Amino acid sequence: MFNVEHIRQDFPILNRQVNSKPLVYLDNAATSQTPQQVIDVIVDYYSTYNANIHRGVHSLSQEATDAYEQARLKIQNHFNAKFAHEIIFTSGTTHGINLVANGFSNFLKQGDEIIVSALEHHSNIVPWQMLCERSGATLKVIPMNTEGELIMSEYDKLLSANTKLVFVNHISNALGTINPIEYIIEKAHEVGSAVLIDGAQSCPHIKPDVQALDVDFYVTSAHKMCGPTGQGMLYGKEEWLKKLPPYQGGGEMIAEVTFQKTTYADLPHKFEAGTPNICGGIAFGAAIDYMNAIGFDAISNYEHELLDYATEALSNIEGLKIYGTAKHKTSVISFNLEGIHPYDVGTILDKLGIAVRTGHHCAQPVMDFYKIPGTVRASFAFYNTKEEVDTLVNGVKKAKMMLS
Ligand code: PMP
């Protein structure tokens, strides 16, 4: 039975005050908070078995290796990957995208096309622009409508035999739109294109099944889903990961090194050069355990309740405009008060202990579409409450009064 008050006790940070007010943390799309269960795993790692992995014969190294590989299995299981070696540990979503973009340099030529969406985060635009510069390929963009939904009929028109890669986020960080990735993947495959889905914003809310999606690559960051920063994962279909060249050279990723020739290690180590964030990987596994114990159906149902409650309450404030009103969206509300800069609203909310994000949210093309410099973004997690939404709404009213 989902009990938010009970869940909140797992998050020590939620007890603190900011500017002498109880913290109301509504910046979950930027990073989520960490439950005690995950903090304990981090403390335990550094207190009892901190050691480098894979190379040591000694017991600590063996324990750390076992825990790290156990975490890989948890992630495999969570995303329903066919093989554990299809899970590559990365430093986060950005790293995973760059790893794939770098590898695709080998496969692309002049005239090939890459499709991204108008809703992308900069980390899902810039690596492809760099890839196009290197390879001579062209970048095409799926346009969006004013509700913040991608226009699928336009996507259909962009697809052709020249399409080699399609990159779309599962959920938009700027607006919360849930994109129709099942359709996007199926259509891309019909023209023989590979698909990478950016799951940075989806994984805190839903449990993707990479085999059911038949997706070629899926990336995410642990810090968006109750895990540590600097840690993430790239899922890739075995056939793709075998074809892609290594991203970085170094220790761990080799089979044999001589000055004449180096051979690479098997998957997943081929993509894991150097000493990884060992504790981060283990804590990522613990975060997945934590969220699964609550259950993604319960999380998503509760967050939808919060989203509906907050959308209605904020919509009742005169002069407040919500950007992104897609039919399928998750618990993100991007808004502005008429004639008031989002930064000023955010500053007043902070004085009231309310943490929101203001600005372009690393999605400048989305802001350009609406012809605005940025928005105030409140993003909810399963540990937020309706009372916190009320505090936000009162805070926004106060900001409006002070700034009008
Ligand atoms: N894509 C999306 C949709 C995101 O929201 C974010 C994080 N804001 C990223 C990519 C980048 O994630 P990270 O900074 O953890 O690499």
From TrEMBL:
Q: Which InterPro entries match?
A: Aminotrans_V_dom (IPR000192), Aminotrans_V_PyrdxlP_BS (IPR020578), Cys_dSase_SufS (IPR010970), Cysteine_dSase (IPR016454), PyrdxlP-dep_Trfase (IPR015424), PyrdxlP-dep_Trfase_major (IPR015421), PyrdxlP-dep_Trfase_small (IPR015422)
Q: Which coenzymes or cofactors are required?
A: pyridoxal 5'-phosphate
Please tell me whether the keyword Transferase is annotated for this protein.
yes
Query: In its UniProt entry, what is this protein called?
Result: Cysteine desulfurase
The species is Formosa sediminum
Quote the catalytic activity from the record.
(sulfur carrier)-H + L-cysteine = (sulfur carrier)-SH + L-alanine
> One of this protein's GO BP terms?
cysteine metabolic process
UniProt lineage: Bacteria, Pseudomonadati, Bacteroidota, Flavobacteriia, Flavobacteriales
PROSITE patterns for this protein: AA_TRANSFER_CLASS_5
Going by the UniProt record, its keywords in alphabetical order are: Pyridoxal phosphate, Transferase
